[in-house]
Design brief:
Elements (H helix, E strand, L loop, with lengths): L1 H24 L10 H37 L3 H4 L3 H15 L11 H41 L7 H39 L4 H6 L3 E2 L14 E2 L2 H32 L2 H12 L6 H28 L18 H25 L3 H9 L4 H30 L2 H6 L17 H8 L9 H35 L1
Antiparallel strand pairs: 1-2
Amino acid sequence: MALIVFAVLAAVALGAFLAARARARVRSGAAWHSGPVYHAVQALIWTLAPALLVLVLAAVFSDALWLQVMSAGLPEPIQALEPFRRQAFLSDVRLVGAGGLPMQIWTGELSGLLQSEAARSSRVQGLLDAAAAVAAVTLALLGGLIGVLQVRPGLRARNRVEAWIGGALFVCSAVAVLTTVGIVASLLFESLRFFQTVPVLEFLFGTQWSPQIAIRADQIGSSGAFGAVPLFVGTFLIMAIAMLVAAPIGLFSAIYLSEYASGASRAVIKPLLEILAGVPTVVYGFFAALTVGPALRGFFNGIGAQLLGGPLDSVGQYLLLVQNQMALVAGAVMGIMLIPFVSSLSDDIINAVPQSLRDGSYAMGATKSETVGRVLLPAALPGIAGALLLAVSRAIGETMIVTMAAGLAANLTLNPLDTVTTVTVQIVTLLTGDQEFNSPKTLAAFGLGLTLFVLTLCLNIVAQRIVQAYREQYD
């Protein structure tokens, strides 16, 4: 049904476009304000805008209309169900009416009512879809006719089309802004609910993280610990290790590709380097867990064996010094993942520096390395700082690599050989599974998200101030 409706709308819109353009090309003696293309585009807008608006409204309110119609004629046994079971029954009715299988097994009288109500649901949904389709096609025909009949010499079609384009751009901007406001509002609202249960100071400065709330007061772990300091320490520890890997390698790669590599070398090396950006994070997680982790574990345990004076594999002689999961493994592999982010953006930024700056430096007798260090990098510093900020944000938000390579233990440590966890990993853990949404354990995810949002915002503000200071110096 949907494909047919869109095909009909496309045909009507194309007919209106061609008819309006043909009518505008038949020029009389009067001066035309706008060209034929603008008249055709205006007819196209008159055709599609009302029809798409009807389809959007139908998609938004279709569920509510279906529920209202179905609820008005429910048999008595269904109305006698508890609200939760009645809602589940209606969900299964809609699922069976659409050709699927019920999620629950209904027995007795409800089993027969399920089939009859599913047939009624299919009819109701078909009528709603047909009404929306007929309304959309009707409005498309009327709008196309109006758009074609409006074609005349004095019509300011160009102004109207540009107004439509401006309105569309404004709507896109408003959606972006409102999305940001909605994200912040949802985080803030749920975080306030969390902080009504857990004090803010305990959350921000507590050093124990164990968000296990027992069901009974006499159960072990009946009072959870919600100190978020270990999570943020682990987050910034892994991020720092990742940036220590990604920043120098990525920046030096960009300098080489931009200033030292030949055209043939650049054409081969840059695409190969950017392949890293397309590798899924779970693949990096496998690489960290199966290759990097055991390699670093063997390396550090070998050093420990030398210090202790014997092999670690002697039965019962020594304990393992480190294990496969550690912050160093997650940070190193994450840094490899971030190399193309830093390299590609920095390369484009360095190439955007005016050639006149290079020529002036060479004219003063500077070498290539001196030109790069004293001219190009200072001039490209704002852009490079933006690339590094993007990499930092990517590192803070990474989850899969940390889960597979650093573990889930919330340890307050700066030792890169210990297991740690991050804020994003704990958010996923808290919101996974059958959890009561009103419990402090689940709401703690929103407190972590809000705190991470504020910290990231502060980092961006500080970085912007640094960039502005250097930009003023070199402008």
